[in-house]
Amino acid sequence: EASELQCRFRNEELEKALAQVGSHRAEAEQSESQLTVAESQLADHQEEVHRARAELDMHREAAGREARNAREELALAVADLAWHRKETDVVKAQLSRQAADSEAQVEVV
User: Which residues lie in coiled coils (predicted)?
Assistant: First the structure.
């Protein structure tokens, strides 16, 4: 009878242990499922970051091109302004000579 009680006790202990194993297994499966979801979300976020970086690089390149173009346009405008100033100086000099010639002709008359 003592042996039978010991067997029952051991069986109960084994059943408890098996129940715990089943519970742990279910928790492990749930954790694994959560990990899979988290890994998928991480991959999605990494892809978003990659796309955002690519877009940022594209915008930086465009801004760089626009800045270079603006500098070139400014340099051309400065050169054009300098040319027009020289032309203005030439015209002023011609007008001054003409005025001087006109004054000289008026004095002669």
Answer: 11-73
